[in-house]
Specification:
Blueprint lengths: L3 E2 L1 H17 L2 E5 L5 E2 L1 H16 L3 E5 L3 H9 L13
Helix pairs in contact: 1-2
């Protein structure tokens, strides 16, 4: 994931995530470089988690940063969940 996971990066990330889901049964997002994330990115991650679950796949976030965890908490979500919930 890029340093800035925001509205500007969501469209290209969406395409990459869909391609990864089409290619396998697991999607792991390495978040080590994420400095800032906004609601658009969180919505993308949640949608990818639901899409993965429908396909029988999994979605995991690794190397979460403080900036990413803050964004999840501000949205009322648990950043430590092992997989994104299928809402």
């Amino acid at each position: 994931m890029p340093a800035q996971c925001d509205l500007r990066s969501v469209q290209s990330l969406r395409g990459e995530m869909l391609a990864a889901l089409d290619a396998g049964s697991a999607l792991t997002l390495d978040c080590a470089a994420v400095e800032r994330a906004d609601m658009a990115f969180l919505q993308l991650v949640l949608a990818a988690g639901r899409s993965a679950a429908r396909r029988g796949a999994t979605l995991a976030l690794t190397n979460r940063t403080g900036g990413l965890d803050v964004a999840f908490r501000r949205a009322g979500l648990d950043p430590s969940a092992p997989a994104m919930p299928a809402l």
